[in-house]
Automatic annotation (TrEMBL), chain A:
Protein name, UniProt field: Respiratory chain oxidoreductase
PROSITE patterns assigned to the protein according to its UniProt record, in alphabetical order: 2FE2S_FER_2 (PS51085), 4FE4S_FER_1 (PS00198), 4FE4S_FER_2 (PS51379), 4FE4S_MOW_BIS_MGD (PS51669), MOLYBDOPTERIN_PROK_1 (PS00551)
Cited Gene3D superfamilies: 3.10.20.740, 3.30.70.20, ADC-like domains
Domain 2Fe-2S ferredoxin-type: 10-88
A molecular function (GO) term: oxidoreductase activity
Signal peptide per UniProt: none
Entry-linked InterPro entries: 2Fe-2S_ferredoxin-like_sf, 2Fe-2S_ferredoxin-type, 4Fe4S_Fe-S-bd, 4Fe4S_Fe_S_CS, Mopterin_OxRdtase_4Fe-4S_dom, MopterinOxRdtase_cofactor_BS, PSI_iron-sulfur_center
TrEMBL record, chain B:
Keyword Cell wall biogenesis/degradation in record: no
Keywords tagged on the record: 4Fe-4S, Iron, Iron-sulfur, Metal-binding
Record keyword Iron present: yes
Taxonomic lineage from the root: Bacteria, Bacillati, Actinomycetota, Actinomycetes, Streptosporangiales
Membrane-spanning parts: none
Region of interest (Disordered), ranges: 187-253
Stretch forming the signal peptide: none
Family: Belongs to the complex I 51 kDa subunit family.
Stretches assigned to the NADH-ubiquinone oxidoreductase 51kDa subunit iron-sulphur binding domain: 604-648
PROSITE patterns linked: COMPLEX1_51K_2 (PS00645)
Name of the protein in question: NADH dehydrogenase subunit F
Amino acid sequence: MTVPLRPPRRLIEITVDGEAVRVPEGDTILDACAAAGKDIPTLCYGDTLTPKNACRVCVVEVEGARTLAPACSRKAEPGMVVGTATERARHSRKVVLELLASSVDLSTTPRAAEWIDEYGADPERFGPDAATVAQPAKVDNELYVRDYAKCILCYKCVDACGDQWQNSFAIAVSGRGFDAAISTEFDAPLTDSACVYCGNCVEVCPTGALSFKTEFDMRAAGTWDEDEQTQTTTICSYCGVGCNLTLHVQENRIVKVTSPHDNPVTHGNLCIKGRFGFQHVQNVGASDG
Amino acid sequence: MDLRFRDAEPAAEERAAIDALLGAPESAWEGGARTEDDLRFAAQPAEDRRDQLLPALHAVNDRVGWISEGALDYICRRLNVPPAEAYSVATFYSLLSVRPRPPRVLHVCTDLACQARGAGAVRRDVEAALGPAGTSWQPSPCLGLCERAPAALALQAGENPTATVYGPADFSDSSAFDWLSPAGSVAANDPRNVHGAADGPRENAKLVGGSQETADLADGSRETAEATDDPGKTADLADSPRETAETTDDPRKTAELADGCREVAGVFGDAPVRVAVPQAGDAGLVLLRRVGVVDPASLDDYRAAGGYAALRRAFELGPGGVIREVLEAGLVGRGGAAFPTGRKWEATARQFDRPHYLVCNADESEPGTFKDRVVMEGDPYSLVEAMTIAGFATGCSRGYLYIRGEYPRAIRRLEHAIATARVRGLLGEDILGQGFAFDIEIRRGAGAYICGEETAIFNSIEGYRGEPRSKPPFPVEKGLFGKPTVVNNVETLVNVLPILKGGAAAYAAVGTGGSTGTKLFCVSGTVRRPGIYELPFGATLGELLSLAGGATGTLRAVLLGGAAGAFVRGDELDIPLTFEGTRAAGATLGSGVILVLDDTVELPPFLLRIAEFFRDESCGQCVPCRVGTVRQEEALHRLTRRRSAGDLVVLREVGQAMRDASICGLGQTAWNAVESAIDRLGVFAEEAS
């Protein structure tokens, strides 16, 4: 399969941590950092979405700017001098990690523990009475679970559900400030909302707040083991579009379905059938065993 | 958009309120009754009217007091907006409710200026009478009535929604709550009874209590008599709408205009605007020249007092000439950021993308700020004229005037002024016969400080959550509806009038090199004569305070620039009140807040209120501000109970991250005042090490 090439872009030069980096015009600082081999933490950034720059964990110091800049969304400009590991940038990242880890359950956020360690963040410093978003998980359908105690309000699910991908507009951010939450209208259950169960919100969720019901149940039972899982990418057989499916299999059972984000057909998105319609593959179990 | 609705039906009055705003639905596709025709034709793609979402939510909230599922659903059908998004917008604003509540809600200001003047007692009285906050009353951020602190504002939903201003509020007498009994609230819904209440200066006098002076001021009849000395003049005012009657066919409209000329309909208990301007009538005033002197409802009076001379001058100069004058005058923004206005105008005018938009930011919500309210209430035509000039200079044919929802009188005054200007050809297709087309649309905020941020205001007008956008792109390139937009504060805009009338050189001769012209200062707190003062830049803090009669007790500190500003000590009175002078002193002029604190005001609770304000008003978009403001408040709570070096470090580190990494000015300044209180005033200093 060929990926359509983008028209050639002029290269511009910026300085990242004292090192000159040439990137195509229009690229972000994050792209430039990646080109320079810098590992910048990101949470709300999604490779298939327009950057929302809400989490501020990717901030870097741009020379001459009053405030730090979000690497994920700020475009690189010729001559820009960027510091990714300056004291100010590291301080803000550390505090952002502390603020998040003290208010949200990051236990299923990939790399969170590593970053907390790397930046010397101490989420305990705000004391035992620090406000959190702890709340029971919303289990209102058989396909996926919304565990908002793990939600960092990155807006990615809202963007995926809305005009960036699915155009279902089932969810949005309600309320304001610390009380803001992802919600349907009047906090109605998903089954009574515009949700079409494409699961594209689950695909982009960076913290595991949204997860397959299978994964949620297996985690609750203590049987979820990613090291034991294999991933097999295949083509969905439901219709002729040809979406790539990546089947996550543990103990010979499909436990989760994703789609490669660089797949030009799906960009990581699927429909309810591709995402959740896998039970028929393994329903033999009920009768024979 | 293929939307899914949950089929909740609106009540008849909800539907009527929405239809009154949007017109009747054209087909069942838009929420109308289904006819056979609807089954034969597919829905026409609805015209994009997303920007009517907030006005529609207001319409229901004004009529019923809250927004039910049925009403939200109907709004969504009418405007083709996903219900989840409409819900997300409705829950963003503190004046809107998506839960049932009584039609009358009392908003008790507990913010800084009121806290310094006894808001705690008012709150306790209200709580004792009405129970815990939430339904019939709620604590409110600054209502912008700081000169009459402690203040409260009752908003009454109904067919003719009304507002009652309490300032100074005194609810120690339980009879002040008569209107809240079930019978009372029904009675208040009846327009006849509402007028009865309006005529009752006795009731107002009882509510405002206290000194004879305020009781007199609350007396509406006296207000008009005082504002216009000449009885003949009052007769003239009543005449002018008749003039308009000839040009407008709609009798209802004329009646409204006639109402507005005498009193502001639907706003009770408010004192004349003159009360807020101790210098009223002073010959040296520039921006406040007409406030409290000229009838704010009369366009003739405005013109007689020099109005619309600046617009004529603008037409002589041409757009480029106006911008040159503004640049040469050295005018910088008065909303707090002090950006050169001429440069903003020039950059907008240069943009090829069309149309250009003008947004006047009258979402004045910085605690302790009330200058824009006083200008709008006392001299509304000056803002209409100034916006027209700004539109002319920057190539806009449409201006949006975004006024905060807590300013009912300013909104009504401007509505009236805009309608009158339109009738007289001073707004519309061909202004003053010069071939320039410009009109102004008022948008009402709904209780969100953040909407005063220059990009959040766009989202709010467009019908989205009032969350700031990330910059770049800047508004001059991509602003309202993605088009080049110039955003100016009210005070900034009215400064353009003296610039054009007297010339840039004369304007720049006033003030200092870095800060030209005059500035409106919002003096409040424990000071003898609170109010709006106009002084040339360069006056010192001490001079301003002596003009305001000094602190009522021993001066302890002054908060400059509001909650986002900084404290200075009582012995730093020689700080010059200029942008450069306050900066050099490590403070900020901000929006011109001068909040005076004497030794009766406890500082830790005051700091807590600042922290609470930012926690409440954070939009929640970015982590440093959303969680940081909560952690700041928690640390201050702990410090108030027990000094601890660790908590001071937490404050500093979180504060630094908020300042460096937040998306917008709210988060970036949320720690300023607390930091200055610790470093400059030495709050929490003892035992801290």
